[in-house]
Every structure is written in C-alpha cells, then in structure tokens.
Amino acid sequence: MKIIIREVETSEEMEAAQAIRFEVFVKEQNVPPLLEKDPDDEKAMHVIALKEGLIIGTGRLLILGNIAKIGRIAVIHSERHRGVGTAIVKKLIEIAVQRGIREIFLHAQIPIVPFYALLGFVPQGPVFQEAGIPHRRMKMKFQNNDDEPIIA
Asked: For 49-79, what is each residue's pLDDT tens digit?
C-alpha cells in the first residue's frame, strides 16, 4: 500500500497528528502532556503520513535561522517497522534542503539512534534526559548545493 507524506493542510489534520503524538508520547512513553505539546508547535511545519486516506504518522520541522530541527516523529503502533518513519524523516529533510537549510539536528531517543544513523545523522555529545527519557543529539550537514549529507 502506498504511503503519502505531505504537509498538514487543515486544522483537522493537525488535530489528527497531535492525537497520534499524544498516543505515542504521552500514553506509550509517559511523557507529560505539557512537554509533548510545546510552543514550537506553532512555529514548526508539520507533515502527515497517509495510508488509504487515514493519517498514520506525523513529524515536524522547526527552522531556526540557517539550521533546522526535526522532531515529534510518531507512527501509530500498527504501522511501525514498515518504512513510515523513514519516509517522514526523508520528507522533512527534503523540505529543509528545499528551503536552503544545510544543517539539521534532532534529539533521538537512545534506542532509535541506529535508525537515524542509517538516514545519515551523526551522534553529537553526551546522552541527556529529555522528558525523562535518555536522548542523544544527532546532526546532518549538507554541502552547498549537494543534497547528499556529509557523514563525519
């Protein structure tokens, strides 16, 4: 079945994306609701993953000057390990590059670090706690007009 990844277009789509995030982060991972939905939501660009017209995943891209942060990647339980998360991250990278961003970072939960490494992100610095969960900062840099990441 084909998965479509695109930017959120309506308030209903945003509500569906937030419901997925609530399910994944608050219910499954015990992240406090006030930490899950933060002020960056208003500034970020959000994408959704659609399968047969149903929203099954989401992610966001926050542009901070000449760098960007990927975050809040969430996929409903029944659709995990099927490439949805990978497609969401790749779409966010593509959007960032189209907007002239040459460095992207994210905060990866420790068990997910290998997933992001396969996509070209490199671990940076020590492990830290975010919402009570161990994370590691990871980043990806791009050459001037080359969309291939610099793996260093």
From this structure: 999 999 999 999 999 999 999 999 999 999 9
Structurally, the chain folds into a number of domains equal to 1
User: Could you read off the pLDDT of 11-27 as tens digits, one per residue?
Assistant: 999 999 999 999 999 99
Q: For position 98, which CATH number holds? A: 3.40.630.30
Under 8 Å between Cβ of 140 and 103: yes
Domain span including residue 16:
3-150
Beta strands in the chain (DSSP E): 3-7, 45-51, 54-64, 67-75, 103-109, 122-130, 133-142, 149-150
Per residue, what are the HEC states of 132-150? CEEEEEEEEEECCCCCCEE
Give me the numbers of helices (H) and strands (E) for the chain, helices first please: 5, 8
